[in-house]
Every structure is written in C-alpha cells, then in structure tokens.
Amino acid sequence: MLSYILRRIVATLPVMAIVALFVFSLLYIAPGDPAVVIAGDQASPEDVERIRQSLGLDRPFLVQFGGWVWRILHGDLGTSIFTNLPVSAMIGQRLGPTLSLMIVTLLLTIVVAVPLGVVAAWKAGSLIDRVIMGFAVFGFSLPVFVVGYMLAYIFALELEWLPVQGYTPLSQGFWPWLENLILPAIALGCVYIALVARITRAAMLEVLQQDYIRTAKAKGLGQGGILFIHALKNAAVPIVTVIGIGIALLIGGAVVTESVFAIPGLGRLTIDAILRRDYPVIQGIVLLFSFVYVLVNLMIDVVYTLVDPRIRY
Amino acid sequence: MDRRTVLKGLAGAGSLALTGGLSAPAIAQGAAARTLRFVPQANLANFDPIWGTQYVVRNAAAMVWDTLYGIDSSFRPQRQMVESEEVTDDGTTWTFKLRPGLKFHDGEPVLSKDVVASLTRWSARDPMGLMIKALQQELTAVDDRTFKWVLKQPFPKLLYALGKNNSPCSFIMPERIAQTDPFKQISEYIGSGPLKFAKSEWVPGAKAVFEKFADYSPRQEKSSWLAGGKQVMVDRVEWVIMPDPATAAAALQNGEIDWWENPIADLVPVLKKNKNISVDIGDPLGNIGSFRMNFLYPPFNDVRARRAVLMALSQEDYMRAIVGDDNSLWKPLPGYFTPDTPLYTEVGGEILKGKRDLDAAKKLLAESGYSGQPVTCLVAQDQPITKAMGDVTADLLKKLGMNVDFVATDWGTVGSRRAQKTPPGQGGWNMFHTWHAGADCVNPAPYTAIRANGDKAWFGWPTSEATEKEVASWFEAKNIDEEKAAMGRLNKAAIDDVVYAPTGFFLSYTAWRKNVTGVAKGPLPFFWGVSKSA
C-alpha cells in the first residue's frame, strides 16, 4: 500500500507540470494587463508601460515561464503583483476559511445525504421516497447564490439567529467559528446533498436486491442493522467515489458561496486575482487546487480498501 | 491504519478544537463600540498611494499619511503639516516650515529630509507634480523643520498641488520609504497620519485594519475634508471587503457593519426603510459619465462624426440607465466640469442641451464620410456603470445608422485594450466607456481626461490646440475671475472638438447605522470626527 501511495504521488508530478504549463500559457495569451489596474484610471500610457517594465511583464514568454518554474522548483510560488506579499502567505491566510467551509459542508452532506439516500431506497416508491427525491431535484436546480440569499434573509435578517456574513477563526472559539459557517455550508451543500442522496439511493437499491440481504432478513436481523451495517457497507464504494468527485464541485461552489457570505477564502482570492490579472496568485491557486484534486483521488483509492477488504493495490 | 484509528483521530481532533474553542476569549462589547466597521467601494489590493493610484488606495492612505496642505470643502488649500510658508516676490522660491511635534508611526520625528524625499517620489508620478518638476531648480532641506523649493518660474497652483485630494496625493513618508522607485511598490507602511495601518491583520481582498495613532498631533481648526484637525474618535477602523452588495446591505441592516461607502441604487429603498440606518449623498462632487472616441481612426478622426454623436445623445437615457428613477441622483451636464463647484461652467454646451435632433445628427455623420464601417465599442460588463452606458450607446449608434461592433468584456481587458493604438480591426478600438470622479473634474489641474495634447493625451488621444491653450490659461490665471474666464473658454473649446462625450453627472449614496455620528460629505470617506455609540 505504501509503495502504491508513493507511486501515485510521483505520478502527480507530470500532471502538475502540464497544469503549470497550461495555466501559464493561458494567462500569457489572455487579454488584460495588471499594470493598467495598478496604475489607475487616470494614469498615462507611459506610466502603465513603466509599471509593466518594473514588474517584468514586458519580458518574453520563455523568460517569464523559466523564471517562474525555477522559483516553483525552489518552493517559491512568487510574489503577488498587487499586494507585494508572498503568494504562499496569501494562500495561507485564505486556506483556513475555505477548509473550514469545505469540512463543515462535507460533514453536513454525509450526515444528511447518506441517511436520506438509505431511507429513500428502503422506502422506494413510497411517498417518503418521492419527497426525498423531490428535495434532491430541488437541491440540484437551485443556484448556490439563490439558496444563500434565501437563507441569509430568513435566518439572519428575519429570525436573527445567525450572522449574515464573515468568518471567525477556530482559535476565537468553536461556536463563533461554526455560526459563521452554518448558512454557507447549507447553501453550498444543497447540490452536494442532492447528488450524494441520489447516488446512495441507487447503490442501496441494487444492494438490497442481493441474496445476502434476504438471508439477513431471514435470520431476523433488525431493519437498522440490515440497512446501515450490511447494505450500506456494500454500497459504499460508489458513494465514496461520488463524495470524492463532489469535492471538485465544492471548490467551484466555494467561489460563489464565499462571495455571497463574504468569507475570506481561496474562492474569493481566485476571483479577485483573475479580475486584476494577478498572475502569480492565479498560478499558485490553480497549482494548489490541482494538487488537492489529485490528492483527493488518491485518498478515495485508499478509502476503498477500508470499506471493501477485497480491494488491494 | 484501520477505520477505528481514523475515527479515534477525528474524535480527538474534534474534542481538541471544541476545548480550545470554548476557552477562547470573546470580544468585549466596549471594544466593539470603539471599532468602526466600514465597507469600502472596492478591495484594498495594494497599499502604496504613489505606485497604485486607485481611489480606494488613496482613501486608505489618507488615514495613514498626512499631507503638507489639505484642500477644504471650499477647494482652498489649508496648512496641514506645514506651520508657515514664505514665497519671494517673483514667486519662484518657496520656504516652508513644518509644525513642531510631528511624528511618524514608528515614533521618529517628521523631518524636512522626509518631506523632500516624499515630494520627489510624488512629483515623478502626479500630473501636477510633473509640471512642478519641470520647473524645479532645487528642492532641499534647510534644517530639520525647514525646506526650500526653488522654481525656474512661478507656479501659482503650488499649494493646491500639495493639498489636493486627487490621486496621487503628496503624502509624507519617512525618507527611507520615500526613496523607493516611484514605479515600484513600497513594503513598509510607516505613516504620518492619524491612524496606523495594522499590516499583520491585513488580508488583501478581505480586511484591512487601521488603529488610532496616539502620538498624532492634530491641528486645532475644525476639520474640513483633508484640512483641519483630524480627531479620531474610535480606536480601530476595520475595512471589511464585501464583493456582493446584497450581503453588504444585509450586514448593515443586521448591525454587523457600521458604514457602507456606496450602496447600489437598487438597494437604497430597502435601507431607507430601516429605522436604524441613515442614508444620504456621500460625495456631493459625484461622477461624470463618459465615453471616449478614438481620434486616430475613422469615423471619429473627423470632428463631424464626433459632433453627430454628441448631437444625438440623450444624457437622461444614460443617467436613468445608471441610477434608475431617483431624480435626486443625476443632473444633465452640458460641459465637462463638476456642477455646484466654484469654477463650474456651461459655456459652449448648447449641443448637449434641448431636444435631441437625430435627423441633423445623421446628416452630419454622412457629411463626415462615414460609410458603414464597423465601430468597435468596448464595454466592460463587470462594472454596472459602464455596462449600463454601453447598452445605451449601442442603441444610440444603431439609431444613427452606425454598424456597431459591440465588444462585451471585463474591465481588465478594456483597461489594456484601450491603450492599443492599432486600427480597430487589429486589436484597437473606436470607443470605450468610463466615468470620472467629480473631484477630479473641478478644474484642469487633476483632470487628465480633459487634456487634448494628441499622443500625450489620455486614451483616445484627442488633439485640440484650442483646448490645450485654455488649459495653460487656467494654470497661468492669477485670480478667480481669470480662472473662471479660462474655464469658460476651455469648456467651449473641448466641446467644439469633442474631446470626449459627457453622458451626465450622477451621485451615489452612502449609508451608516444611526449609532454612528459625524459622517461628513466629501470626495472620500473621512474617518476623523466619526464616532460610534454602543
């Protein structure tokens, strides 16, 4: 297993290299100029050009790319064109809020979606099943920002139970940390819950038809034990797979959710960097996201061996 | 590793977080009352007011760095860091003396050498600074509190230049920081103003914190814009960046923020209904909407084509697209200068007044030789103001019978493409939309967009000798009457040659919680004099 993990980690290197080249090239040919944004609207073309030169943006593609790769190989993601801060420090500032949001959303999803999917499969064709699947369709259909606004209006403005926006680090207390994440996690989790619930239902329906389930029933096992110990364990592989794939959905959704709830996370940093053409920051974030995605896939493969002892690498 | 180990680890981490969390201190209510939470117009992405000249940087910098002079609400420069000044009879040698007791945020005294270095860096970037630099013979520190500026010829607007609130302002920094190349960003933020920048708490794009500087020595006069006593009444000012206006509106209603610099017009009715919120015009100098036509290529290299567009455009259409039905938020603008300011003029603005004459405009356009070539119109869709104006312009040009190549893009792309001097079909352009802060349009000094010196002019590169002549007249004017006369001639010349198309004058609101007092109207948010009760 350990050698498999090491091989997979080594295999990520060419993937990261291709991502790096692709991102750098794309940004190079994309229209827009950070010097224009820095100089401000009243700046003269000469001022803009001087700023471009001072930032090294007037140098040829290969020189810029070579310099960037050299720095990456030395563990330096570069310096933000705008803030003059190291990209790694900027990402570090934003990692906590995004990780918090994703963890709470993930936990919420697992706690809500898996039982819903199990119950829907158990009561397949009944009113309960239809209600749960109707909710799933609803969750799929509503854009994140609409859910976000609705939740903020009801629970923050009308009921005044939770804050509208912001983020409090965990170091300032568990409840202050959690109360800022509840509404964003529900908004972000809607699509995810819908997806996992549907997949859980489908996987469970298949497992519930198996002979060993009939045998378990014949042995007189309780319904809960059959569903959550025997059936769910055997339906876990596709569920784990979709939870992993869904993390990509979370990364995309976090961009919108962080804007709606003013959470200072990586999603907002990405948008700000793109709008300003802060190339080093964009490149650093994309590299990080691609690394996280590769890592999540690796973790899913490892989790497979935990839920299904037949799988060995 | 097995499942039990994983579960134990997670449980351990959870309980650790829980325990650590519950023991953390809560913010006391008193501290919250001494903290002013403010939502600025944009993200504070960098913090060097000379290197980056965006308004939001200027607004933050005005808290942290002081200036030698400050323009007050009557547009007059008043002494700020300066105690006294003397000028020779021929107007070429200025000697300034600094107030005693001025300190930087690191505790060091403000000395003449710091002023000299700061003015040198500023004058390399500021349009007025460049004019002074061109006349400069020497700028030297005489002693710790005295410095001398010797010019080759008089520059009557010198004190105005040192006190103006237009970006970049001549902020005073320590010498070692001010010696940074003006085209490179500073990395230390040691200020001379009433608030300190808390760099350790800065999360670019999310939060910026400013703390009261206990050793700041305010003037005794009443504060007025950048002039007078800058008395800070709170301990901290927190800038909270909120990209979503709906979130900012909800946070203000909920009391999570105290002051929102510029609520969008659509959300103002909701805020006005809330009994805990005050809403008023924030900046009475407002903004001037505009689109610029490229003087280098047909059809707008012909003044008749430019005049045809001016003749047909309805400023009301543009303003309604920007501010909606609120009539208190806009005014027609038959000229280029900010209404309700001392030098405002409408001389020569007839072409923008009265009923629009589409037929006459079409006739004039035909006379210009326009024969249906595409007109490349750049419109930034991510800026509500430019998007609204772009839609109106597209409709206007179509009514005139023009073939519109509508390029819907983002502001970053417009910003770089507008600098292209290539023909419109080869990466260039014919038109782009923008707007100018009214504070930059009160007179020609900070007004880059009014200049018409061809290659050296702002994007669109207008050429108008008459306009340039009157800009020079204004700079040479010795009194207010001469200034007013020059402004009238300038407005007429610029309209005759259509340096750019003004689409109207518009204002915007600012909103704050009623437990906040002292919010002053002005071209930027002033944090001195603002207090907050629990």
From TrEMBL, chain A:
It comes from the Bacteria. Residues 95-304 form the ABC transmembrane type-1 domain. Pfam families: BPD_transp_1, BPD_transp_1_N. The chain crosses the membrane at residues 9-30, 99-122, 134-157, 177-197, 235-261, 281-307. It is a multi-pass membrane protein. Keywords: Cell membrane, Membrane, Transmembrane, Transmembrane helix, Transport. InterPro entries: BPD_transp_1_N, MetI-like, MetI-like_sf. It is found in: Cell membrane. The keyword Cell membrane applies. Its main location: membrane. Belongs to the binding-protein-dependent transport system permease family. This is Peptide/nickel transport system permease protein.
